[in-house]
């Protein structure tokens, strides 16, 4: 009980509040650029949904925007910008559950506000909602989103690992690159979300929650597996060896 109380107190300190605000701002900026790029593609090319050039443009926008968003918040909140990344970090014990919940709230608020601003400022443009093709099952889409989120969270773990040195600028770039590559790989199938906050914001403002579970279950499972594998199997913490027996 004392441990729970201390964790709750830790989650409302000034430093923690700064972290939540940083997550809100970074998620807002990322979603604004990501969704805005998709809306701009549809405005310039009515058939953008099926165009390869549009897919490349959206992937590049996602890569650049996420790299910047992570870099901006890295030294304050860790630069999660994604509830799945936060969940993966919580599974690995790098963030407490109460703080993770506040991170999720900040991330989803940032996403909703970004989509709302795009909706109101463009007036006639519809906010694009993540969806899957009719021939694809929700189970298959969840697997696809889970594998991509695994790659994302695994990259986040590797980039933020102090044993590899300071994150610097290369960490956010690596995170952005893996997201851009995944968008290229999955855009026509699931939209390449990997981010429950992004999917939630577009669905809420876009007015459709169809297949929303795909964009939560898949990424959360993928993030959890990435956190467990990285910290416990592939790159576990080194245990010091004692010099004498029984010491």
From TrEMBL:
Transmembrane segments: 20-40, 52-74, 94-118, 139-160, 166-185, 213-230
Record-linked PROSITE patterns: MIP
Keywords: Membrane, Transmembrane, Transmembrane helix, Transport
Membrane topology reported for the UniProt record: Multi-pass membrane protein
Family designation: Belongs to the MIP/aquaporin (TC 1.A.8) family.
Species: Penstemon davidsonii
Primary residence: membrane
Location relative to the cell: Membrane
Keyword Transmembrane in record: yes
InterPro entries per UniProt: Aquaporin-like, Aquaporin_transptr, MIP, MIP_CS
Name this protein carries in UniProt: Aquaporin TIP5-1
